[in-house]
Design a protein that fits this description.
Elements: H1 3-14, E1 25-26, E2 35-41, H2 45-56, E3 63-69, H3 71-79, E4 92-93, E5 108-111, E6 120-123, E7 142-157, E8 170-172, H4 173-182, H5 184-187, H6 206-215, H7 235-243, E9 256-259, H8 260-263, H9 266-269, E10 272-274, E11 276-278, H10 298-301, E12 308-316, H11 326-335, H12 353-358, E13 369-370, E14 379-380, H13 388-394, E15 413-415, E16 418-420
């Protein structure tokens, strides 16, 4: 059913070749300046492209070389010093060409002519035995850095132009538990009762791990058809599977899962919609955003929407907990919005947090809630340097006041060009 669409996605990645060498170079080639070798979740490729392009364009460039894979696999490979091609292909690197399109599925391919030790891994779930039970114990030399928030969604096919597709608007934790834990056929939760139209991910993928913890079904226990058309390795391929059903008579039966930053792409939102989610002990269902068509992740940020986790960065550190490789230190600082001295490049602002936000992630400084375990309870969070107004302005949400030296804030503090509460 999905093979034609998987092929189209593969071709989409080739478009990046316009700025890539005709023959892939070695991943250790001199043209790949100051490389940082990253084991990345496939949902984190968009932010690596944006932030990586900015870092590559600096006077002293840093080049991101990445392999897309599952969160739990990334952790295992980091702990065992493996930098090998993943199920999503790779390695790929961010080219120096300023015309590189950050929205491409992949960057430029390079070859593993020699053994490479990875420098850093990211995971969109807490890197512990609960989330990744088969991962080795983390070595004491590996530090952990908590980055921005990624939301996840249940999604169904829907054509925004023809208005054809699924009529479903919401799903409850109880319904998800039955469909995915007991199985679509035995659960008998209409309309999601046909396993041929239920799409998930391998158990090593953070999206499935995180949603599983929120609905009480561990990732390895999901009752999916055990083939590549239903247990789908790459999130972009799962999105294609849903999109392909938007005008299909069976669209009502379909259900899938996606990282919100994948769902938020215009091409995906035009062919599907996210379901509002009602968590256990909630009385109402909520979208990640205020409405089904907005992008400000308000319900994630204030605690109404439960399907989210932090992007975690793990890397070798010194005795003070500082990354041992300067490029890794810079990359993590950029992802956390703490990198200083960067210069704007190729239409990218100098503030690396712009790339984080425009990739669909929510920086911690824009959050009002926090959690300390995967799918765990939420508690209030007050960031010491809030950036909620900067975040809203970046995603074109109204309501914030711009400021600068000449135009100070009437109240609050001017941060990143906007008046924040403190």
């Amino acid at each position: 059913m999905l093979k034609p669409f998987l092929g189209l996605l593969a071709l989409a990645g080739v478009a990046a070749a316009q700025v890539c060498p005709a023959t892939p170079v070695s991943c250790t080639d001199a043209s790949i300046v100051n490389p940082v070798y990253v084991l990345s979740g496939d949902t984190q490729v968009p932010v690596l492209h944006r932030v990586g392009k900015l870092l590559r364009a600096q006077p002293s460039p840093t080049t991101i070389v990445y392999i897309p894979n599952g969160s739990c696999t990334n952790l295992t490979n980091l702990y065992t010093n493996k930098f090998t091609a993943g199920t999503g292909g790779g390695p790929y690197y961010i080219p120096a060409d300023p015309t590189f399109d950050v929205t491409q599925k992949t960057a430029c391919p390079c070859t593993l002519a020699t053994a490479i030790v990875p420098d850093v891994a990211n995971s969109i779930v807490f890197p512990d035995a609960k989330s990744c039970p088969t991962t080795p114990v983390r070595p004491g030399t590996i530090g952990q850095f908590q980055g921005p928030v990624q939301a996840m969604v249940f999604a169904v096919p829907y054509d925004a132009i023809t208005h054809a597709g699924s009529s479903q608007q919401a799903i409850t934790a109880e319904e998800a538990y039955l469909v995915l834990g007991i199985g679509p056929t035995d659960a008998a939760v209409p309309p999601w009762s046909d396993p041929a139209f239920i799409f998930g991910r391998p158990a090593s993928k953070g999206t499935q791990v995180s949603i599983g913890e929120n609905i009480g079904v561990p990732a390895a226990k999901w009752r999916l058809l055990a083939d590549a058309q239903h247990t789908i390795d790459q999130s972009s391929d799962l999105a294609a599977a849903l999109a392909a059903l938007a005008n299909d008579p069976s669209a009502e039966k379909a259900l899938g899962i996606l990282g919100a930053e994948i769902y938020d792409k215009a091409a995906n939102r035009s062919k599907m919609h996210a379901l509002a989610f009602r968590a256990y002990q909630q009385k109402r269902a909520y979208w990640p955003d205020r409405t089904s068509t907005s992008f400000e992740k308000q319900n994630v940020r204030d605690g109404h929407y439960a399907l989210w986790s932090y992007v975690q960065y793990l890397a070798p550190v010194d005795g003070s907990g500082v990354p041992t490789k300067p490029g890794v230190k810079l990359l993590i600082a950029a992802m956390l919005g703490e990198a200083t001295g960067l210069v704007a490049a190729a239409s990218l602002p100098a503030d690396s947090l712009d790339g984080v936000v425009k990739s669909g992630l929510v920086p911690n400084c824009a959050m009002k809630v926090q959690r300390s375990s995967e799918g765990g309870p939420l508690s209030k969070y007050d960031d010491p340097a809030p950036c909620g107004c900067y975040y809203d302005a970046t995603v074109a949400a109204p309501g914030c006041t711009a400021c600068d030296i000449a135009t100070p804030c009437a109240s609050g503090v001017c941060r990143r060009g906007f008046c924040e509460v403190r």
